[in-house]
Predict the structure.
Amino acid sequence: MQACSGCGLRHQCLCSAIPRLSSELSLSLLTHENEYQRETNTGRWLVQSLPSCSVFTWQRTSPPEALLQRMAGPNYHSVLVYPSEQSVPVTLEHQNAQRMGKKMHFIVLDGTWQEAKKMLRKSPWLAIPHVQINAQGESCYQLRRHQQVGHLCTLEVGSALLNALNEPQNAQRLNTFLHRFMHTLQADKSGHALVNYLD
């Protein structure tokens, strides 16, 4: 059976369920090249759901020029969503951006946790403020093994950022879709369409 060119599923197309949001969130995904090959990748849904979400491929020796230009834009205040000793709450950095009259631009490292740490370590050009998000409870993501406590999938990070920017309805729509995607993918991998799914 031929896989859908949009969602990649074979037994049930998920394209019509992807939320199309009207949102102020400006987001750039810096994606490890391995992540494109993973059917469990959730960053792709943010690109399709958010009007101001772009994806860039991370390469150790050559930063993406288009992302560098976006970061240098006079109207943007770019921050990296990453938990570190230097991280500050999103709301605090958002207030700083407002005082400067700039729009928040969030960069998210899209890959496994090990890949994200490597990407940051080998990208000195990412020397920008770090922000941490206040996740509501533990991750519900169940599509990868060895998921550690406190770690969120990329779509959950996007949802948490929407909540931080006072867009709770958009955040909920992303979370609802994530649950549907997880159940649909698990059914697809088992060789059949998902039946009797309730949001």
The chain has a mean pLDDT of 89. Residues 22-132+150-189 form one domain. Residues 168-189 form the longest helix (22 residues).
